[in-house]
């Protein structure tokens, strides 16, 4: 009995998060009401505060959920950039979650936005995930890991933006090749026996 | 008399473009009405179609205007990247126009968005302006100018996005130094006598 109740609870939470993610991507955070979400999810409106406290709590759950999906597509923390891991980072550009992230970004940069700090956390977690995969010694001399991460995450965001509005104008394979060419095999990459 | 009328016409056009730019940045394209713009500009609603045809014509004028402001901040077409010109491209990250561009981007990626092609033109013009300042022979071997431009414009867009939501988490000077370190003086940069 108890197990089945937990399953129902987890299932209704999951359905609400999915419905909210779709509505936030489509209409934005502010324009989406609990009624919209409950209608789409087919679950009573009252269950939203029960699960998430308030609307920001729901946003946090949505962002975490989408971020987990993004991170699941990343290679394990093998500390192997510039090679294959970098390719997979570039593949973020094709992410379906990106539409949600773009819509929320527009609201996050508004003056006094309630969602700004939640959005900042999204970027911070993306940077952390990428940084964990870039051992400092694999980067060319003079390139700091922190700033390189900002640049790489930024490039993915901004190349995605260009590709979304004009896919025919952006050759993703050529962009990938360019990143590889700009990051030639750096000293220390074949010297990975030692633990960092 | 005729001169003064032209001045009044140009002035009212300018005031309408400025008001529309602020409202589009604040509320988005779709949510902004001619009445909002006329009220803010203090000019009759009927003068908007007279100047711009329709709302998309007004958007085009706004984007062109902001883009001209952006390009005015770029160095002249001296064909000198990676050095100082690159620094100035990175300075785009601090652009005030960027909020307008982020808000419009969120609408441009919507399914069936009427503004997508106008937005694509904005990216295309940014790429064109940057590309004109990067002579192909100044790039490292294996780096294609077209893809490099997409990557650089993308990095500026995406670093800006991160900086806007969390300025304390993004060290713009370190990002600039990283771009410089990734683009070491390439062959051909001191070989600029020949015309390309």
Automatic annotation (TrEMBL), chains A, B:
InterPro entries: Homeodomain-like_sf, HTH-type_TetR-like_transc_reg, HTH_TetR, Tet_transcr_reg_TetR-rel_C_sf. The keyword Nucleus does not apply. Gene3D superfamilies: Tetracycline Repressor, domain 2. It comes from the Bacteria. Residues 10-70 form the HTH tetR-type domain. Residues 33-52 bind DNA. Keywords: DNA-binding, Transcription, Transcription regulation. This is TetR family transcriptional regulator. It comes from Planomonospora corallina.
């Amino acid at each position: 009995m108890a197990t089945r109740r937990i399953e129902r609870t987890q299932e209704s939470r999951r359905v609400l998060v999915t419905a909210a993610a779709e509505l936030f991507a489509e209409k934005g955070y502010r324009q989406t009401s609990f009624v919209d979400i409950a209608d789409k999810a087919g679950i009573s409106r009252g269950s939203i505060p029960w699960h998430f406290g308030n609307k920001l709590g729901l946003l946090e759950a949505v962002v975490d959920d989408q971020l987990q999906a993004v991170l699941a597509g990343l290679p394990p923390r093998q500390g192997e950039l510039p090679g294959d891991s970098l390719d997979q980072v570039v593949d973020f550009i094709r992410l379906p979650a990106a539409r949600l992230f773009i819509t929320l970004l527009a609201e996050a940069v508004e003056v006094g936005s309630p969602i700004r700090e939640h959005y900042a956390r999204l970027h911070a977690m993306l940077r952390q995930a990428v940084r964990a995969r870039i051992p400092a010694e694999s980067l060319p001399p003079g390139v700091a890991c922190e700033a390189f991460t900002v640049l790489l995450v930024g490039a993915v965001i901004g190349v995605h933006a260009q590709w979304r509005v004009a896919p025919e104008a952006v050759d993703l394979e050529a962009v990938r090749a360019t990143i590889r060419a700009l990051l030639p095999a750096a000293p220390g990459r074949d010297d990975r026996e030692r633990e960092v």
